[in-house]
Amino acid sequence: MLIPREFEALLGLQDAMDRTLDTGFFDSATSGRGVHPPVNIFEKDGEIVLVAELPGVKKKDLSIEVKEDTVRLSGERAIAYDKNVNYHRVERNSSKFDRTLKLPINVQTDKVKAEYKDGLLVLFLPRAEKNKPKQITIQ
Amino acid sequence: MSDERKEIAKAENKKPEKTECAGERTIPGKYYIPRTDIAETEKNLVVTMDVPGVRKENLNITLENRNLEVDAKIDFSPYEKLDPVYTEYNVGHYTRSFTVSNTIDTKNIDANLTDGVLTLTLPKAPEALPRKIEIN
């Protein structure tokens, strides 16, 4: 069962505020601090893998920037219908988004890989060389 | 438990991003209801669904006794080697069904999947199209 749209908007606002205020994970992030798209962050062999669901966003409308420990996802999802259309149900919305995430590691920016397939954005963010811990051997 | 881990746990207790499908299933994994737009044009009924992460081959669309059912499965294998550190949404299969009115030309339904968006075009049956009546 879906929540009616009006309530969805209210809950969405509350959720957005909660998400911004309630987590210490992205402390001191930059100004473009939206909450959309939601992301999942994984770790794999010391590399950070960021996954975001962006259905209906065209590759050319998606911009990804990485600097040091900050990742910025911005873009637009545009839904266009012909003019002579009657809507029976509207649950999807077109939206502009701009989200900046601060990661707990510095990223080797020239080795970042991005894949966008089936509406799923996957970013592979390797740890910066100078940020890697040094193994100390005991004499 | 470090502070960072605590924050992660907190984020996981939030209101879910997606609506879970209430029906009971016999296969493992969560099922969600995809967000859907339904629009009617002069000739077609267009159903648009967000199914991010679903590949064409894992999409099953059936029409039986006017019941149009979309069943989209997620391939979880890319996630197997990943260790989650921060999560905001859950990943699961998608399912939704609609009752199609009998004014649809069920033989010519067209389905298209681009960038995680499924578009079903259901043409209206010729007898349901508007007709202009000429006065003799």
Commentary on this structure:
The mean pLDDT of chain A is 82. In chain A, a hairpin with a 2-residue loop joins strand 3 (62-67) and strand 4. In chain A, the strands form two sheets. Chain A has a four-stranded antiparallel β-sheet, with no helix packed on it. Chain A has a three-stranded antiparallel β-sheet with strand order 3-4-6, with no helix packed on it. Chain A starts with a helix and ends in a 14-residue tail after the last strand. Chain A has a single domain (28-131), classed as Immunoglobulin-like (Sandwich), CATH 2.60.40.790. Chain A has 139 residues and is mainly beta. Chain A contains one helix and eight strands. Chain B is mostly beta strands. Chain B has one domain: Immunoglobulin-like (Sandwich), CATH 2.60.40. Chain B has one helix and nine strands; from the N terminus they run αβββββββββ. Chain B has one helix at 3-12, and strands spanning 31-32, 36-40, 44-50, 54-64, 67-74, 83-87, 93-99, 110-114, 117-123. Chain B is elongated, with a radius of gyration of 20 Å. Chains A and B meet through helix 1, strand 1, strand 2 and strand 5 of A and helix 1, strand 2, strand 3 and strand 6 of B.
What brief labels describe this structure?
heterodimer; A: 139 residues; mainly beta; Immunoglobulin-like; 1 helix; elongated; B: 136 residues; 4-stranded mixed beta sheet; 4-stranded antiparallel beta sheet
Output the radius of gyration of chain A: 18 Å
Report on the biggest sheet of chain A: 4 strands, antiparallel
Class of secondary structure makeup of chain A: mainly beta
> DSSP helix count of chain A?
1
Return Rg of chain B in Å: 20 Å
Number of domains of chain A: 1
Secondary-structure element order of chain B, N to C: HEEEEEEEEE
The overall number of domains of chain B is 1
| Percent of residues in helices of chain B | under 10%
CATH architecture of chain A: Sandwich
**What is the annotated CATH architecture of chain B?**
Sandwich
Q: CATH topology of chain B, which one?
A: Immunoglobulin-like
Low-pLDDT residue intervals, each spanning 5 or more residues of chain A: none
H/E element sequence of chain A = HEEEEEEEE
